[in-house]
Structures are given as structure tokens and as C-alpha cells.
Design goal:
The chain is an alpha/beta fold. The chain has one domain: Phosphoglycerate mutase-like (Rossmann fold). It is 38% helix and 16% strand. The chain has six helices and six strands, in the order βααβαβααβαββ. It has a six-stranded mixed beta sheet. It starts with a strand and ends in a 5-residue tail after the last strand.
Length: 190
């Protein structure tokens, strides 16, 4: 099984370094171009995508639609999975790093989804992928912090492990399941 992991393209909040979380911020023009370029490269590999599954948030859903277009996959077959939604950042959503440092200092951010909870969602996603798509190639269109959790769970490390970086908007990564063990390739086209 091969699972391509697509982080949605850039939004204006990404550009401003604002936490988006569950806020439904659309792609900007640069984000649209990022996803188109990434998926055109993926399409040039000639492989078939058996399923595209996306977060229900608009920036990921639009990225999935752009991927479907580039890959010749029917847009009406894209599945939405609420478990692929971005990590909830509670009261920090919409804030810049500077605003968070001033407002929350060293305190826990009220309402933030715990690392354990986001990793449990990631584990559910990987389990469903294995059950529903054995031996298939799928593409998941989702978000940076959720991808960090998904990658950490897949390779058996913690969310806070620096070996699993936050990934760039519009980037593509690959998880391959061989004999029940995942291997991970960061930035397939870098």
C-alpha cells in the first residue's frame, strides 16, 4: 500500500504564520499553484490513484480537488474524512507566534487538542487505510499538524519527536506499507 500525504497549499494565514486549526481559511493563489505543481509532478509518474480522501476543511478539500484534476481522478469520488481535520488549537487559532507568546506565555492553551488525541485520530486513519485499501495507492489531503501526528504514528515515534518535521504547504510525502510496517519519504519532489 502506498499513501501519498498532501498538505494543502498556502493560505493567507500560512503566509502570516497564524494558527488555522479548525478555522476554515481558503487557499490563496500561491497555494493553488503549489498544489497544481506538486500534483502535476505526481501525475507525470504515471501511477494510478485508487482513492483520494480529504479533510472537510475547504483548504484541504480544494487541494484534493486540484489533485483529482491533475491525476484524472473523478472529483465526485473524493471522500471526506473528519478525522483528517487539522489539530484544534483552541483559543490560539487565528493568532501569530508573537501573539501566542504574549497571550499564553508558558501556559497550556485553553481548548487545544492534546498531542495524544490528535495521534489517536491519526491511528484511526491509518487503520482504516489498511483495512479499506490493502495493496492500493491513495492520496490523503490534509493539514500540517495532523500530518506530523500521522507520520509520527506511522513510524512509531512521538508527536514531539524532531525527526518528524512540520511540512510545507503544498508538499507531498509518501508512506509505504510493506508487511505491516510503514516507511516514510519526506518531500517526494524536493
Amino acid at each position: 500500500m502506498r499513501i501519498y500525504l498532501l498538505r494543502h497549499g498556502q493560505t493567507d494565514w500560512n503566509k502570516e504564520w497564524r494558527l488555522q486549526g479548525h478555522c476554515d481559511i481558503p487557499l490563496n493563489q500561491n497555494g493553488i499553484e503549489q498544489v497544481k505543481a506538486t500534483c502535476a509532478k505526481l501525475g507525470s509518474l504515471g501511477g494510478q490513484i485508487d482513492a483520494i480522501v480529504a479533510s472537510p476543511l475547504g483548504r484541504a478539500r480544494t487541494s484534493a480537488e486540484l489533485a483529482a484534476e491533475a491525476l484524472g481522478y473523478p472529483k465526485d469520488k473524493i471522500l471526506l474524512d473528519p478525522d483528517l481535520i487539522e489539530r484544534g488549537f483552541g483559543e490560539a487559532e487565528g493568532t501569530t507566534k508573537e501573539e501566542r507568546m504574549e497571550r499564553f506565555r508558558e501556559e497550556k492553551i485553553p481548548g487545544i487538542e492534546s498531542e495524544e488525541d490528535v495521534c489517536r485520530r491519526a491511528e484511526r486513519v491509518l487503520t482504516r487505510c489498511r483495512e479499506q485499501y490493502p495493496g492500493k495507492t491513495i492520496l490523503l489531503a490534509t493539514h500540517g499538524a495532523f500530518l506530523k501526528a500521522l507520520m509520527a504514528v506511522a513510524i512509531g515515534t512521538s508527536y514531539s519527536d524532531r525527526a518528524v518535521p512540520i511540512v510545507n504547504p503544498g508538499s507531498l510525502h509518501l508512506l509505504e506499507d510493506k508487511d505491516g510496517k510503514f516507511s516514510l519519504s519526506f518531500d517526494v519532489f524536493s
